[in-house]
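About this split. The held-out portion is used to measure sequence recovery: a designer receives only the structure tokens and must propose an amino acid at every position. Recovery is the fraction of positions where the proposal matches the reference. Here is one held-out target exactly as it appears in the evaluation file.
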């Protein structure tokens, strides 16, 4: 969440930048400033009351020593009254701080200066394009038909045992899926990311830490009896490894990667654009997460983008990078770049990765700090990205590489699959 210091330094700029995300922040920012002034005044009264209590307590001791018991008893009664008043002031400070936090939890991150204005995906900006476009015949099959033809994924069986959006991978389909996961993990390791294997369920504090709560609780699967959430991405448990942690200055940067299954309700998603692997309730993904000093985070963001691009190049997929406009960005992000790949048979672009810098927004929620050379603690910058999400990568690979002889597997995967063609 935003810090009070950010808001107090330039509330007008904060309100203007929030408008780029389509968020009207004037009322919330003004409320926060008014409550902070109230908190400050109440804290001052509380401090004065505490000082007065200390003075009277010292006087009681002197009165008792000099034998003035009656005066001492009167002073004790006064101290009791002051203690009650001081507690009420302390409680009021706590209530006001809670009010401020509750409002700040509803305010999204301020978009970075380089984020374009816009209200929807139509306003995103194509930054870069690469990769060879497939040359497919007009009767090229979409991936759901290819999966049936070569017995790779059974969507109907998934509906039978669970429901729509939970496919069953079979034979070479399962092996190709596993090959992609290992390829992505090995590539992340070569790029200096330390692999971790996180839990697939998290508690409420973790959801608040990375910003899924209270913004996206309706999109997460909730285990009611245990008050736990199935993770929508490994970003949540991995970033929360550093919740309430003060990292030594020489301990940064931190670079982690993790494979996980991801669970998303995708409430309200219907129609042809969600067919097959295009939108699932459960899918696999390799995530990269970085904890950085603020002055290094944008260089780290570029490095992450280059890493994702290298994966798509090695897979031979056509791709482009979108700089998301304010209206299409997530609640917590300061800037986001989406990678999309071309799906040859569907003739459409499919999102396969989002790479984001959250600046201090998540770190403030997490209390993720580092100790600087000045010996003081400072908020870190957090970043993450998909490297990569599996379903649409699989869809594009199957569609773009179909030939009369079968589906050609990219060379970089051969050592993982043990086969070079699916037929």
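Reference sequence for scoring:
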């Amino acid at each position: 969440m935003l810090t009070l210091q950010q808001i107090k330094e330039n509330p007008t700029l904060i309100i203007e930048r929030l408008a780029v995300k389509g968020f009207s922040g004037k009322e919330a920012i003004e409320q926060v400033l008014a409550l902070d002034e109230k908190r400050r005044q109440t804290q001052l009264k509380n401090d004065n009351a505490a000082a007065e209590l200390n003075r009277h307590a010292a006087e009681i001791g002197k009165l008792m020593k000099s034998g003035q018991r009656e005066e001492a008893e009167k002073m004790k009664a006064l101290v009791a009254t002051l203690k009650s008043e001081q507690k009420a002031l302390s409680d009021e400070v706590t209530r006001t701080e809670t009010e401020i936090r509750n409002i700040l939890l509803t305010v999204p991150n301020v978009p970075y200066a380089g984020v374009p204005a816009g209200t929807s995906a139509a306003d995103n900006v194509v930054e870069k394009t690469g990769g060879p476009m497939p040359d497919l015949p007009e009767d090229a099959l979409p991936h759901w038909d290819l999966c049936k033809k070569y017995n790779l994924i059974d969507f109907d069986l998934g509906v039978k045992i669970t429901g729509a959006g939970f496919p069953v991978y079979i034979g070479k389909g399962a092996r190709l899926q596993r090959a992609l996961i290992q390829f992505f993990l090995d590539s992340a390791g070569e790029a200096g990311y330390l692999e971790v294997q996180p839990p697939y369920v998290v508690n409420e504090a973790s959801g608040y830490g990375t910003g899924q709560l209270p913004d996206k609780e309706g999109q997460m699967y909730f285990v009611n009896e245990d008050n736990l959430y199935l993770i929508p991405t490994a970003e949540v448990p991995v970033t929360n490894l550093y919740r309430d942690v003060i990292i030594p200055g020489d301990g940064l940067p931190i670079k982690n990667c993790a494979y996980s299954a991801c669970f998303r309700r995708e409430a309200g998603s219907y129609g042809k654009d969600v067919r097959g692997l295009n939108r699932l309730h459960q899918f696999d993904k390799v995530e990269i997460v970085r904890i950085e000093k603020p002055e290094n985070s944008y260089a780290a963001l570029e490095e992450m983008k280059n890493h994702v691009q290298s994966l798509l190049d090695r897979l031979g997929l056509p791709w482009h990078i979108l700089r998301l406009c304010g209206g299409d960005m997530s609640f917590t992000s300061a800037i986001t770049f989406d990678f999309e790949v071309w799906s040859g048979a569907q003739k459409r672009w499919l999102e396969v990765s989002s790479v984001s810098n959250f600046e201090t927004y998540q770190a403030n929620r997490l209390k993720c700090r580092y100790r600087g050379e000045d010996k003081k603690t400072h908020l870190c910058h957090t970043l993450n990205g998909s490297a990569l999400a599996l379903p649409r990568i699989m869809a594009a690979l199957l569609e773009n590489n179909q030939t009369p002889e079968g589906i050609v597997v990219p060379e970089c995967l051969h050592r993982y699959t043990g086969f070079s063609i699916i037929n």
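Annotator remark: The chain has 13 helices and 19 strands.
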